[in-house]
Amino acid sequence: MPYDEVMINRAPVLTLWAAIVAERLGFTHDEAMTLGRAVAGLNAYSKGLAIGIFKPTPIEVHRKRAETLNETLHVELLHRAVPVIQTPEGLRALSKEKPITPASVEKYLLGKFKDALEPVSAAMTELANSRDPEEIASEAYRLYEQFRPDIPAGAAGWGAAGTLNLTHIRRLAHRKQ
Q1: What is the pLDDT of residues 106-161, one digit of tens each?
Q2: What is the largest CA-CA distance in the chain?
Q3: SS3 92
Q4: CA–CA gap between residue 176 and residue 116 (Å, rounded)
Q5: How does 90-102 read in b/e, with b if 16+ C-beta sit within 10 Å?
Q6: At what angle do helices 29-50 and 102-113 cross, to 10 degrees?
Q7: Count of domains for the chain
Q8: From residue 64, how far is each of 45, 49, 60, 96 by CA, in Å?
Q9: Which residues are bridge partners to 99 per DSSP?
Q10: Separation between Cα atoms, residue 106 and residue 108, nearest integer Å
Q11: What does residue 142 show for φ and ψ, rounded to 5 degrees?
Q12: Do 25 and 85 meet the contact criterion of CB atoms below 8 Å apart?
């Protein structure tokens, strides 16, 4: 197989995995793309705060977002409450109160994975499909922790690339836990 390993950082891996899980849970492809991007963004923000890369959001911005989010629906995906809105095109996850466009996520993933996008997607889809929807909904983040690229801890790992092993992802698909 031409792609058994891919050097990549964690954000696109989590974006793709969350999108694939969302599709397994019944969301359309476009809805899932936006949900995946939002999950990765929420994760990155939390990690950035924890390691001191980001400063906490100012209280007035928090208040404004809270008012907006009180009127917003949420979808739980990979243990994250993702803010979403219904648009004429379908459900869209929000980033800074604006709907994420599926095309922007597709472009992002293609730019990060390049030719490896199809084989990585296939391996992740095999893993998501190896569990029924209830199982994958509860296990998805734990599975991600098992296959995500290894990177240095703390600030040294921010944006760092690691090895994503597709053989390991496929093995997880065949090993129900």
Answers
A1: 999 999 999 999 999 999 999 999 999 999 999 999 999 999 998 877 766 667 78
A2: 52
A3: strand
A4: 26
A5: ebbbbbeeebbbb
A6: 70
A7: 1
A8: 18, 20, 6, 11
A9: 94
A10: 5
A11: -65, -40
A12: no
